[in-house]
């Protein structure tokens, strides 16, 4: 067994696990910088409180603000350590924007985001860089996220060098070899360029680059949406295996509800910048309450042609309303077959209906 400079133990099969002393640091709640901490549950590694992200709409030469695009509008949830929360919804629902807000790539309009008890919205750029060692994001497009002029080994080490954690040439090579073998690639791939790899291999390289900093939390932004079905299964199984080895926590953003169901412990359904339903994965699929969630689930194919043809399909009519001028009441009322006057005038809150099941629907809460 050898110890790598960034805190990995390299075991016989090339698997990478975190050093024990790093786990002790997290358990004691100490982070490598000084800042104000707020109380947070022991099991919660991330807590999002009433986050809003509005983009101004301007007009004229003077760029006068005339409206806001409400991309994320009052989102709250928590992620437990070692668990995965899936976020699903149509394109334009605000999923990726929410991920960028958590990473602080976008400064939120309102709200607070706590990671390991630290409010990320109050940190300076310097302190955010330090915390990004623990908090990583894997983007949707592996083709755009890799520098075509950099060899794969250098891309994997780029974050390590920016964090000042690079060791000797031999130690760096050993780190690259270990993380590449962890994601199912060989060390010989380190001297190649991105254009020499397939889409699935590039996504594995992006995962290896994130793992090189031994994070405790990874935001996966539609990481399998552009891949073939067989490659999707390999990547998702890889995420599950790595989570078991390293006790990672994930936010898994996606369109394919069957994939999200497989990897997630809890699922939040977003529509037009808001969470409309949130509960445990199996509870959502077995007892979905919001009409929008029911429509999404009904669109998932069943691998039994007879059952698939016999089940009732929930078809949504119309288009998603503009996030600049959303409906006054429930944001789904313009496409909901159960909507009445109350739905169009009064916005429902995300309320618990039992069994850790939250839904924003007047009909579901009153039922």
Report on this structure.
- By secondary structure, this protein is α/β, with parallel strands linked by helices.
- About 35% of the residues lie in helices and about 25% in strands.
- The protein is built from 14 helices and 15 strands.
- The chain has helices at about 20-25, 95-105, 125-130, 140-145, 150-160, 170-180, 200-210, 230-245, 255-265, 280-285, 290-300, 305-310, 340-345, 360-365, and strands at about 1-5, 10, 15-20, 45-60, 65-80, 85-90, 110-115, 120, 135-140, 215-220, 250-255, 265-270, 275-280, 350, 360.
- The strands form three sheets. It has an eight-stranded mixed beta sheet with strand order 9-10-11-6-12-13-15-14, with helices on both faces. Strands 5-4-7-8 form a four-stranded antiparallel beta sheet. It has a three-stranded antiparallel beta sheet with strand order 1-2-3.
- Strand 10 (about 215-220), helix 8 and strand 11 (about 250-255) form a beta-alpha-beta unit.
- Helix 6 (about 170-180) crosses helix 7 (about 200-210).
- The longest helix has 18 residues, at about 230-245.
- The chain is globular and about 70 Å long.
- The termini are far apart.
- Mean pLDDT is about 85; it is low at about 1-40.
- Distance between the terminal alpha carbons, to the nearest Å? 59 Å
Shape: globular
Mean pLDDT: 85
Rg from alpha-carbon coordinates: 22 Å
Q: What profile does the largest beta sheet have?
A: 8 strands, mixed
The level of helicity is 25-40%
The total of helices stands at: 14
SSE arrangement, N to C? EEEHEEEHEEHEHHHHEHEHEEHHHHEEH
Instruction: Please list the strands of the largest sheet in the order they lie side by side.
Output: 9-10-11-6-12-13-15-14
Structural class: alpha/beta
Q: Show unreliable segments.
A: 1-40
**What is the strand tally?**
15
Name the beta content range: 15-25%
